[in-house]
Design goal:
Largest sheet of chain A: 2 strands, antiparallel
CATH topology of the largest domain in chain B: Rossmann fold
CATH superfamily of the largest domain in chain B: Response regulator
Shape of chain A: globular
Low-confidence stretches of chain A: 1-8, 10-28
Oligomer: heterodimer
Strand order of the largest sheet of chain A: 1-4
Largest sheet of chain B: 7 strands, mixed
Number of helices of chain A: 12
Number of strands of chain A: 4
Largest interface: A-B, 54 and 41 residues
Structural class of chain B: alpha/beta
Radius of gyration of chain B: 23 Å
Strand order of the largest sheet of chain B: 10-9-11-12-13-16-17
Strand content of chain B: 15-25%
Mean pLDDT of chain B: 85
Distance between the termini of chain B: 37 Å
CATH architecture of the largest domain in chain B: 3-Layer(aba) Sandwich
């Protein structure tokens, strides 16, 4: 019930869009418990949508070649460094107006293309030669790829650029410019719907719709589903299995690229270590929703985001990880294949 | 070399106790080491004579060297965002050594800077700190250990070094429990002193003073009646948050929240909502740049909480300003105030001012806040080595402990019976135009001993 109220309020906020910065702590700053709940829900949904977008990349790869792609979180981390480099090279400070939206779209698409190609190349170099090997070799290869990416990030952070503080400290967290201001896009009562919340929604929702369309209604989508079901059968039907696998790596990677730009604009900090937490959250989300299942990954991501937020808000922050993993264990005990997962085949 | 270790028998790898004696276990270790080395050496000799010379050289070189050598090491987190701060500390130590021409009382002083951070953590790593301490203990030439930067790391190396009887001088640890009984856990500080003697000293005032000063500043200058306290769940961060809380409660400031954060979380927006609901006048964060102080600040601002953010010296470094970005630190957004155990480099007088000047001439930049503490730690250690009759580890500990009315870069001060400095001066700083700006001093002058 409260969720639907919040959702309605959120849509109203989107409609109002650019009501300008209403002073913080308006109405003497005391939030009612209803407002606190709504605000926590907004935060949870925003964080959850980002996790969901990354989780899709995990689950797609798993659905097709049954590999837990441990390098996925670190791929997103490199994407953030790429985006920061582009923003630094352009020298923009704040995005406003039509030019700003164009810039945002360019960075989003650029980073998505970068992450997609990188993910495709990792598949080509590190996973494809092991296609006939045991699943365990593939897994170890993924862990290796993850290490390489982390160290690339460490190196990248030391480049002599303004945005990397002239490379004086490569391992330090970098401030990502607040290109989309965190100012409230709308404020209803004391609940703030920030522009970054709006950004998350505006980027993730269309992408999820587009992905659903692609998987359900296009030829490539049909081929992907066929390969996921039975690679040998699919190849007998004249489907180029390797091409389809490559395409899913590209699509999963580029969704991660979109997600990482939104993540960076939302949190305004990037660090070479962030991939671990991103990947971990997304992996839990994918497992929670039923790994290999696309709507499951989205559901799992949003759930993880909301649970985290509610636990931070109503319990103590130090219990949050315990709560998240506790819920994961509970769900896996009663539904071993995840919330929306199909019956498990033999998996790693 | 012999007088250095306070014994006359042949020594290669010998671990001496505090009083220069060797325990049974030490003898066994030393024996097996020697057997090992001899075996290795003979195998190597069988391969090539040249290689044998190389392998054996380190064992005998110290004994035969005409110049008597002593070694000082430092252990600070140099991988990660504390790097700028810790590099300037190392520079400070080097300058202290260079000023004496790397010679003290006829002994040549060598220096090695060790890193106690790992790239995986980007912060201090307990395993590496412990390995550093063990390496320093195993090298008989080492007579002084300068470190650590993080109180949590000190917790690991303090008992090891204390047991081995090697003096430790910290330029950066401020957690009160490390030295002061009754302020930390019940078993502190005895747990860090297995030998029962004080062998750990620090040139920086501890958090019992800093936390109180921070709270007093919130109450008097920021007119806070309600505070929300966050900490990073580390020894240092939680320690200072505890002191802050205690002071707040005893001075009538209401604590509306006290919470430990997950230092690896991507953001703290939901915590910020909780903070907004509690409507405090000030947020205090007990933690460091490395435990996500900048992210907490950014999320406060993004969540619309335009209230002052107060944090301790663990954020008093350029890396914090860089990570926080220029928008979240401005006065219009509520302001950021940082307490520091001492005064910033620009405010130093006398020997301190001279140090800053020569540092600038040598390295081309104003040193980070802790550089002068590195310098002071180096100076006080060298001074003690100079005063020590014999140059063994036990005599040097005694000499450091006897430091009284030392005239250094921080003023004239002494070590008390716990190993703490008598200096109690603190400063409050803020951030303006992307740089730290001194606000005022606090905490009072040096306590007469």
């Amino acid at each position: 019930m409260q969720q639907s109220v919040a959702a309605a309020e959120f849509l109203a906020a989107c409609a109002l869009s650019r009501v300008d910065a209403v002073g913080a702590f308006a109405r003497d700053g005391l939030l009612s418990s209803q407002e606190v709940f709504t605000q926590q829900l907004v935060t949870g949904l925003s964080n959850g949508m980002i996790i969901a977008l990354i989780a899709i990349g995990y689950t797609m790869v798993y659905g097709i070649i049954e590999l837990i792609n441990f390098a996925h979180g670190d791929l997103c981390m490199l994407g953030a460094y790429f985006a920061l480099t582009v923003v630094g090279a352009l020298g923009v400070d704040q995005w406003a107006g039509t030019g700003g939206i164009m810039g945002l779209v360019m960075v989003l698409v650029g980073t998505a293309a970068f992450c997609g190609s990188l993910n495709w190349s990792i598949n080509r170099l590190a996973y494809r030669p092991l296609r006939k090997a045991s699943k365990l070799s593939l897994l170890v290869s993924a862990i290796g790829a993850s290490f390489i990416l982390v160290n690339l990030g460490l190196f990248w952070g030391g480049l002599p650029m303004d945005v990397f503080a002239d490379g004086t400290s490569s391992a330090a967290p970098k401030a990502f410019p607040a290109l989309v201001s965190a100012a409230p896009a709308a404020q209803i009562g004391d609940v703030i719907y920030s522009r970054t919340d709006l950004l998350v929604l505006c980027v993730t929702l269309p992408l999820m719709v587009a992905l659903t369309y692609l998987v359900r209604f296009t030829k490539l989508g049909k081929a992907m589903r066929a390969v996921a079901q039975n690679p040998t059968g699919a190849s007998l039907m004249g489907i180029d299995v390797e091409r389809v696998i490559g395409a899913s790596f590209f699509i999963g990677g580029s969704l991660g690229g979109f997600a990482t730009v939104v993540y960076s604009l939302y949190n305004q900090t990037v660090s070479f270590q962030m991939g671990y937490r991103m990947g971990m959250d997304a992996f839990i989300a994918a497992v929670l929703g039923g790994i290999g299942n696309l709507p499951g990954a989205v559901l799992g991501g949003i759930l993880i985001g909301v649970i985290r937020s509610m636990s931070d808000g109503y319990l103590e922050a130090r219990w949050t990880n315990t709560v998240v993993f506790g819920i994961l264990i509970l769900i896996l005990v009663f539904r071993p294949s995840g919330l929306l997962g199909a019956k498990l085949r033999e998996k790693v | 070399m012999d007088e250095l270790l306070g014994q006359t028998e042949d020594t290669d790898f010998v671990v001496t106790g505090l009083d220069g004696s060797r325990t049974r276990a030490d003898r066994f270790v030393s024996l097996s080491f020697r057997v090992m080395i001899r075996r290795t050496a003979s195998i190597v000799a069988a391969l090539t004579g040249a290689a044998f010379l190389l392998a054996a050289a380190p064992v005998f070189a110290v004994q035969d060297a005409p110049n008597k050598k002593l070694k000082i090491v430092s252990s600070l987190p140099q991988t990660g965002s504390a790097n700028a701060q810790t590099t300037s500390i190392v520079n400070g130590i080097k300058m202290a050594i260079e000023e004496r021409g790397a010679m003290v009382d006829g002994f040549k002083i060598e220096f090695e800077a060790m890193d106690d951070a790992s790239p995986q953590k980007g912060n201090w790593d307990g395993q590496i700190e412990s390995a550093n301490a063990k390496r320093a203990i195993a090298d008989p030439a080492v007579v002084g250990y300068i470190g650590t930067y993080n109180s949590g790391a000190a917790k690991i190396s303090m008992p090891l070094l204390n047991k081995a009887g090697l003096v430790m001088v910290s330029p950066g640890n401020t957690a009160a429990g490390l030295t002061k009984p009754g302020l930390g856990e019940p078993n502190e500080p005895a747990v860090y002193r297995p030998s029962g003697k004080v062998s750990y000293f620090r040139v920086v005032p501890a958090d019992d003073i800093q936390g109180a000063v921070a709270c007093e500043f919130c109450r008097n200058d920021l007119k806070a009646t309600k505070v929300f306290i966050l900490h990073d769940r580390e020894l240092y961060g939680k320690g200072i948050a505890d002191v802050f809380k205690k002071t707040a409660e005893s001075t009538g400031v209401e604590v509306v929240g006290f919470e430990g954060i997950d230092a690896k979380a991507s953001n703290y927006r939901s915590l910020v909502t909780k903070i907004r609901a509690a409507a405090p006048d000030v947020v205090f964060f007990g933690g460091t740049t490395q435990t996500n102080a900048a992210q907490v600040l950014k999320d406060l601002r993004a969540g619309g909480a335009k209230i002052p953010f107060v944090s301790p010296d663990g954020t008093f470094e350029k890396a914090f300003i860089e990570a926080a970005g220029k928008d979240s630190v401005t006065k219009e957004q509520g302001g950021v105030y940082i307490t520091f155990g001492g005064v910033p480099s620009e405010m130093l007088t006398g020997i301190g001012a001279k140090f800053v000047k020569s540092y600038q001439a040598k390295y081309g930049e104003i040193p980070e806040a802790y550089a002068v503490y590195g310098y002071e730690a180096g100076c006080v250690l060298l001074d003690a080595i100079d005063r020590a009759e014999t140059k063994d580890r036990a005599a040097i500990i005694a000499a450091v402990a006897a430091t009284k009315d030392f005239n250094g870069a921080l003023g004239t001060w002494s070590f008390d019976e716990n190993g703490d400095t008598s200096i109690r001066t603190m400063s409050i700083n803020t951030i303006e135009d992307g740089a730290f700006k001194f606000v005022r001093t606090a905490g009072g002058a040096a306590k007469a001993k």
